[in-house]
């Protein structure tokens, strides 16, 4: 089976989200062939290069969602911005194409600016139909005319957006949009719709795959929507986080350059896009129940949802987890850093709420004077995260001044900020093994990876009730409300005082993680999903399913045709008249010769003169099995 894997800012690049999960998926399913269609997010990401790709990857197509002028388009009112949006150096559309663009973009703009009536289910109102009409109409225009870049930056685009925002039924926030707001939204919209202008939509690219698997929603799923629209390729969407939720959080950040009108317009667009993606997908696989609920709120059909937890490498934490089980069974404490050590692991940023954790630890110290708190992490990218780390270290120094045991002894702070990779803590597993209790204090969380890693290490956990925390923990740890330092401190003290309870919870957590969150269970789930989707998908390659007279060939592509063995070679009743020889896959061709089977390539194998069949190689009835371009 040939899988078109669609990614956005991740695999095969060395940086970005979902790259590890995608790499494990590709390497763990060697029986399938993968074509990668990757969108990059920055020049820095492209400069870092790719990870080493396995042999299952036949072809990689990449496209940027950034351009050098992104830095000027993000503002509202920079000098020369209007001129850059209205003019351009390329040939403009003709009269028919301009009218075609105006009609399609007007439908999309109306759907974005006008919300559905209260009580209307997502995807059921007239706005969803208008959005689909505009989106696919623009995609067809882009395929015919070679792109939408200048059209989406034209004065026509701004005038259409202005008319749509002033129309009846739009919200008060959208109606207050000024011309700079509309210019900023047009620039962001052009960036979001860039996948429509790619050259991926032909029989050689997305038309050649059997299944499109989008590693996230949003921009990554747009090529999958068009592959289904143009070629009937089924679409599978996997989300470990919700792009729409991430957009809401980013829009609410203090450093966002946009005002309420632009944020409202962007929210309308991303909400409509999410609804269309869930409506068109053959199957949606959320990474947890928290994501599943968000998808249903955006219009996903529960009958088409299948929760698949992300797989993680349990062997990385195996030695620490096995030591915890052994020490727990012997009645000894599993914490290498001492029975009174709390450990926090993650990226240091405001959403992790280390301020509440430090105040909670002050309460813990009153009950357990020998307690220590070890924070392992580094600041996330950005000035805000760096400033937050500085604020946390200053607060720790204020709350916990260096303490000395005597007049001539050097004092030490019970709170330490450390990075993984030093001689004392060489890797991540050692960080979790450095304490007896692992703490998570976040106010916003999706799938809590750090908790799963702690569970693999056999550690008891105390965490806040956010995101998918309760679903992941499942009763093997203590959960408290977020932004409540007193509750967090009480839970930590309860576990620090009871080593037997810590051991029981740690053992139960390790057993749960090994059952639900391993790479093996993730691969088994997608192996079955791929086969299930293909079993419901009709054969789409006409040349392989009809005979010389155009009549359909029954059972032209049996499911066992991909297996090696003489028993799968078709009988003469399945072969077209005058062509008794079946094709051989390219990997089995003598001398490594490739056997093309797609339009625009050299003469297909089933039209050549008959030749000797290789021994022990299966074949397809009326043509070669699909093979990819290197």
Keywords:
630 residues, alpha/beta, six-stranded parallel sheet, 41% helix, globular, disordered C terminus
Q: What does it look like?
A:
The protein has 630 residues and is α/β, with parallel strands linked by helices. It has 23 helices and twelve strands. A six-stranded parallel sheet has the order 3-2-1-4-5-6. It has a six-stranded parallel sheet with strand order 9-8-7-10-11-12, sandwiched between helices. The chain is globular and about 85 Å long.
Secondary structure: elements and pairs:
Layout: E1 2-8, H1 19-28, E2 33-40, H2 43-47, E3 57-64, H3 70-73, H4 81-86, H5 95-113, H6 126-145, H7 149-152, H8 155-166, H9 172-175, H10 179-192, E4 211-214, H11 222-231, E5 235-239, H12 243-251, H13 260-280, E6 283-286, H14 289-297, H15 318-329, E7 341-345, H16 354-367, E8 372-376, H17 383-399, E9 415-418, H18 428-433, E10 437-440, H19 449-456, E11 460-464, H20 469-473, E12 478-480, H21 485-496, H22 499-516, H23 519-535
Helix pairs in contact: 5-6, 5-8, 6-13, 8-10, 10-13, 12-13, 15-22, 16-17, 16-21, 19-22
Unreliable stretches, pLDDT < 50, 5 or more residues? 69-90, 566-630
Largest sheet strand order: 3-2-1-4-5-6
Q: Which geometry do the CA atoms define?
A: globular
Alpha-carbon Rg, integer: 28 Å
Mean pLDDT: 81
Helix content: 40-55%
Question: Strand fraction band?
Answer: 5-15%
Q: State the secondary-structure class.
A: alpha/beta
Concise synopsis of the structure shown:
With 630 residues, the protein is of the alpha/beta class. The chain is built from 23 helices and twelve strands.
